[in-house]
């Protein structure tokens, strides 16, 4: 059942070129993790992982899954802004498929394509669903930048670093890209575009106009993104506390979103390895032992893997959308 569901969805994604890219990114992830394990005192790392109680694992995994159920509802809300009406079951089913796909696709964003693909396969409306999904991803990224930026202002030592300037640059870059893309879609003369592509642009334009007419929905999505990502930071703090990592709560609100942003760069398999190295590089200057930081990040990877596998199994049990004739 699982194999047929995902092979039907991803059937067109095979190919030697894509396979080689996947292998390269997997190699980069393995290489970074291997270097960290070689460089860091592994006895401290594995001892820290072994101190996490089963109850903490259960709480964090359930919390992570709950966060993604809320995230699915946020995506459903943003799709409604572009006139794509899906049920809560459809949203959870598609989002769960994307969560599972993150385990085997070369970037975190790859799960977004699978999530959108599930609904597109059932409903069509390619341009509107693509735009709603893009709005969701931009919301999440802005939320991470905002969280890291605000938290950075509250960390005393941060005044001596240039991180605020970097985060401001990220926010400005995102804003320019989003507004520039919106401008191109809204104002490019359709008569200058080839026939088939012109129809696509018109459909994108209609969907974008629908989104622009309801800015409160986009803002609500942003607030939900901040809430969800803040919850994930809290889950990371629970893991860290169980491993004996004593770091200020506000430092986690700065370091974890920033490491997640860095991990979005598509050079590794789902950000694995990059996230661990980034988090260690950010937190070590604040007196946190690198081995403990990497151990905590690996424990979060375990949560992602277990939750992704559970989601992949669960979504195949949910009913697919049936069109009415």
Helical/strand content category: mainly alpha
User: What's the average pLDDT?
Assistant: 78
Main β-sheet: number of strands, strand sense, barrel status?
Answer: none
**Oligomer description:** single chain
Q: Rg to the nearest angstrom?
A: 21 Å
Helices and strands, in order, run as HHHHHHHHHHHHH
Question: N-to-C terminal Cα separation, in Å?
Answer: 26 Å
Q: What is the 3D form?
A: globular
Number of separate structural domains:
1
> Total number of helical segments?
13
Strand content: under 5%
Number of strands: 0
Helix content: over 70%
Q: Unreliable runs, pLDDT <50, ≥5 residues?
A: 1-14
Question: How is this structure best described in words?
Answer:
This protein has 325 residues and is mainly α. It has one domain (43-315). The chain has 13 helices and no strands. It has helices at residues 2-9, 16-39, 42-50, 54-81, 88-101, 110-123, 126-154, 163-187, 195-212, 215-242, 249-263, 274-283, 290-315. α7 crosses α9, α7 (126-154) crosses α10 (215-242) and α12 (274-283) runs antiparallel to α13. The longest helix has 29 residues, at 126-154. 37% of the residues are buried.
Q: Keyphrases for this structure?
A:
single chain; 325 residues; mainly alpha; 76% helix; disordered N terminus
Question: TL;DR of this structure?
Answer:
With 325 residues, the chain is an all-alpha fold. It has one domain (43-315).
């Amino acid at each position: 059942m699982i194999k047929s569901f995902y092979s039907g969805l991803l059937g067109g994604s095979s190919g030697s070129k894509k396979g080689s890219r996947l292998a390269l990114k997997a190699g980069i992830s393995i290489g970074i993790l291997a270097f960290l394990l070689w460089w860091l005192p592994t006895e401290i790392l594995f001892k820290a992982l072994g101190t996490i109680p089963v109850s903490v694992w259960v709480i964090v995994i359930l919390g992570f899954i709950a966060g993604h159920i809320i995230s699915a509802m946020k995506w459903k809300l943003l799709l409604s802004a572009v006139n794509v009406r899906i049920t809560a079951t459809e949203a959870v089913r598609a989002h769960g498929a994307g969560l599972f796909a993150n385990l085997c696709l070369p970037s975190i964003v790859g799960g977004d394509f699978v999530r959108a693909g599930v609904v597109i396969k059932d409903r069509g409306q390619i341009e509107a669903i693509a735009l709603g999904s893009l709005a969701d991803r931009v919301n999440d990224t802005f939320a991470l930048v905002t969280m890291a930026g605000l938290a950075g202002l509250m960390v005393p030592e941060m005044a001596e670093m240039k991180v605020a300037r970097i985060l401001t640059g990220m926010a400005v870059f995102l804003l320019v890209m989003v507004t520039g893309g919106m401008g191109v879609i809204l104002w490019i003369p359709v008569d200058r575009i080839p026939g088939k592509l012109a129809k696509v642009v018109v459909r994108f334009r209609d969907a974008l106009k629908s989104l622009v007419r309801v800015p409160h929905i986009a803002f609500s999505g942003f607030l939900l993104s901040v809430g969800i990502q803040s919850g994930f930071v809290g889950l990371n703090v629970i893991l860290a506390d169980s491993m004996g990592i004593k770091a200020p709560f506000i430092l986690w609100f700065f370091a974890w979103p920033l490491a997640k942003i860095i991990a979005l760069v598509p050079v590794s398999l789902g950000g694995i390895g990059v996230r661990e190295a980034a988090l260690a590089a950010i937190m070590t200057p604040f007196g946190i032992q690198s081995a403990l930081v990497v151990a905590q990040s690996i424990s979060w990877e375990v949560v992602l893997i277990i939750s992704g596998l559970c989601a992949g199994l669960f979504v195949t049990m949910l009913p697919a959308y049936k069109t009415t004739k």
